[in-house]
Amino acid sequence: MVAFVLAAVAMLVALVPIGWMVWRGTIMEAIVAYEAATSIIVMVLILLPEGFQRSSLFEFPVLMAVLMLGGGLVFVHALERWL
């Protein structure tokens, strides 16, 4: 079970370059980095309940995975005039 927690920590470390891209990149690069970050965060939220053996906490990341695509499309639509 420690492997799941270590994998979650490694994925959180992978968010550092993505955060740099959001901060310093163009708008299009920031949008792509935002989508990548939300995917990684969903995976982290799935790994942590498995690592701590709390199966009741799987509902939130599954819901986030379903809503992630719609949220990204709304975000892109809001920024459409600057792209």
Task: Provide structural commentary.
The chain contains 4 helices and no strands. With 83 residues, it is mainly alpha-helical. The protein has one domain (2-82). The longest helix is centred in the middle third of the chain and has 25 residues, at 27-51. The protein is flat and about 45 Å long.
What would you call the shape?
Answer: flat
Measured by DSSP, the beta-strand proportion falls in under 5%
Q: Compute the number of strand runs.
A: 0
**Backbone CA Rg:** 15 Å
Helix content: over 70%
Number of helices: 4
Order of helices and strands: HHHH
Stretches where pLDDT falls below 50 for ≥5 residues? none
Mean pLDDT: 89
Kindly give the count of domains: 1
Which secondary-structure class do the elements indicate?
mainly alpha
First-residue to last-residue Cα separation: 44 Å
Report the sheet with the most strands, covering strand number, pairing sense and barrel closure.
none
Give keywords:
mainly alpha
Quick description:
The chain contains four helices and no strands.
Strand-helix topology:
Elements: H1 2-13, H2 15-24, H3 27-51, H4 59-78
Helix pairs in contact: 1-3, 2-3, 3-4
